[in-house]
Every structure is written in structure tokens, then in C-alpha cells.
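Revision sheet: C-alpha cells.
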Amino acid sequence: MTGILSIDFDYFIDITAMDRDRLFPAGSDEVPQEQLVFMWNDSYNKYPEIKDIDVIDEYYYLKKLLEEYDIKKSTYL
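Predicted:
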């Protein structure tokens, strides 16, 4: 079975760094899950255009490649 250590999903978001800083909450892995959910809900309420942000084409190419290997889906969502 093939394994993957990590894929940083932020790489695939089709948005500029400036817009990401403006629209997305400032959080990290150290933020408790409950607080992070609150922060994202607040951002979605303030900036409804977040819902329209897509991913770059390379995401779909990588996803297809990963699907060709024996990698559990839950490891790359």
C-alpha cells in the first residue's frame, strides 16, 4: 500500500495570498476545534464570497493520481 505523509490543502485554494489573509480566519493547528469552527462561521457570515472560492486545476490532477493508487480516501480528503 502506498502512503502519503501530508498534503497541505492551502496550496490548492484558488485565491491570492492577500485575499486569503483578508477572508480566512487567523488560526493554526493549536486552535481548539470548537474555537476554530466559531472563527470559520464568523468568516463565512462576514464574507459570503468564501463559498465561491474554488481550487486550482492541479488539485484535480493530484486527486486523480492518488485515486489510482491503493490509498484510503480518508487519508487525502
